[in-house]
Specification:
Layout lengths: L36 H12 L3 E2 H4 L5 H6 L4 E4 L3 E2 L9 E2 L9 H12 L3 E6 L10 H14 L4 E5 L8 H9 L4 E3 L9 H4 L5 H14 L4 E8 L5 H13 L4 E6 L16 H13 L4 E4 L9 H18 L1
Parallel strand pairs: 2-5, 3-4, 5-6, 6-7, 7-8, 8-9, 9-10
Antiparallel strand pairs: 1-2
């Protein structure tokens, strides 16, 4: 009997081969080492406030550029995640108890850095009854109190093991952008994101819009994991069915030899094709480049997102 092909997955039998060498990294994916004074100043502020960033924990290739401009993505609720996704470099294990003073420290760092836009994310906390929703809400409120002009973007876990009140807590705190990444096509979830459920994540973002239609929603995927073009386009359609405003697509990079391997490096021209297709499907904002990450140029992109909505309303 012939094997069935899972939609969106190019080589299901080869989806997770960390022991094999990845393709040679092309020139378009290379970045400069972080050496600027701005980078050092940002690192010192974060260190002084005892804050963790996803920039460091996930080994983001854009850390030098972002930190040189004082931009950092705050990662709350510790450095230990309760999930074990094969693409992620954040440590997996049993997390410590929540730090009740962390929201205040995040707010102080945002004020000190003078951020006009801040991105706040977290590890997954399946050990907590509300998945850390109240901690997210407290952090949003703390930033609002100290920096009322700062716009706030959150990148949350999926709250898979929580009831709906968890999501309601976060939405009621009124972040400006609610981001939750689908990460990849559904056919690759068993190997790439085994602790998550594709349609639950999709429904989470749809529910945000139902709770607050004015709130911007955002999601992103990585490419180069073994997906095919048809699968990526189907994810775009699924996102639009959930009324997601902003799509990010970036090249997956293998953090260590033990992680999911890079199946291929997607070319800049292919990213442009994805960008055009996404705009044609109705997204207000699209960022699709090899180095695109959820929080890369988030402040500038938020301004463009807001302008795009105003333009659309004007046309209506």
């Amino acid at each position: 009997m012939r094997d069935l092909k899972i939609p969106g997955e190019r080589h299901p039998e080869k989806a997770h081969r960390p022991d094999q060498a990845q393709p040679k990294k092309p020139d378009w994916i290379r970045v400069k080492a972080p050496v600027s004074q701005g980078y050092k100043d940002t690192r010192e502020i974060l260190k002084t406030n005892k804050l963790t960033t996803v920039c460091e924990e996930a080994g983001c290739p854009n850390v030098g550029e972002c930190w040189s401009h004082g931009h950092a993505t705050m990662m709350i609720m510790g450095e230990i995640c309760t999930r074990g996704c094969s693409f992620c470099n954040v440590a997996t294990g049993r997390p410590d108890a929540l730090d009740v003073f962390e929201p205040g420290r995040v707010a102080h760092a945002v004020e000190t850095l003078g951020l006009k836009h801040v991105v706040i994310t977290s590890v997954d906390r399946d050990d907590l009854e509300d998945g850390g929703a109240e901690h997210f809400a407290q952090t949003i409120r703390a930033v609002r109190h100290r920096s009322p002009q700062t716009t706030i973007e959150i990148l949350t876990p999926d709250f898979l093991k929580c009831d709906e009140s968890a999501l309601e807590k976060v939405v009621e705190a009124r972040p400006d952008v609610f981001n939750h990444n689908l990460e990849t096509v559904p056919g690759l979830y068993p190997t790439v994101r085994p602790g998550a459920r594709y349609f639950h994540s999709l429904r989470l973002l749809q529910r945000v819009k139902e709770l607050d239609p004015a709130m911007f929603t955002k999601s992103g995927i990585m490419v180069g994991l073994g997906e095919d073009e048809q699968g990526v386009r189907q994810v775009m359609d699924d996102m639009r069915s959930a009324d997601i405003d902003f799509l990010t697509i970036g090249q997956y990079l293998q953090p260590t030899p033990k992680h999911h391997r890079v199946e291929r490096f997607v070319t800049p021209d292919e990213f442009k094709t994805y960008e055009k297709a996404a705009y044609n499907k109705g997204f207000l904002m699209v960022s699709a480049t090899p180095l695109t990450r959820s929080s890369y140029h988030a402040g500038d992109d938020f301004a463009r997102l807001r302008a795009a909505r105003l333009a659309k309303l004007g046309q209506g």
